[in-house]
């Protein structure tokens, strides 16, 4: 996860070659998906960066990437507004997981 300062949609839709997109090539090759694109219906609400300059547009430059195993344990993922609690020009991305799939049952663990 992180602030990649590069845009997935430039890589995915425009196929613009750039060294910044090398990590996206790795993710695509290893079936690693971006969480909000799976769960968010409204593409216009997927932005995570809110520029201070009103002449600049909102962008999505923050991501949570996950593999198929974690995807199967996920309930939801979406950008959340955190202003005014946290002063930032970004929105926070949440990933909601099914607890039963994440917490290991103590009875199934072996003692060494």
UniProtKB/TrEMBL annotation:
<protein>
    <recommendedName>
        <fullName>Endonuclease/exonuclease/phosphatase domain-containing protein</fullName>
    </recommendedName>
</protein>
<dbReference type="InterPro" id="IPR036691">
    <property type="entry name" value="Endo/exonu/phosph_ase_sf"/>
</dbReference>
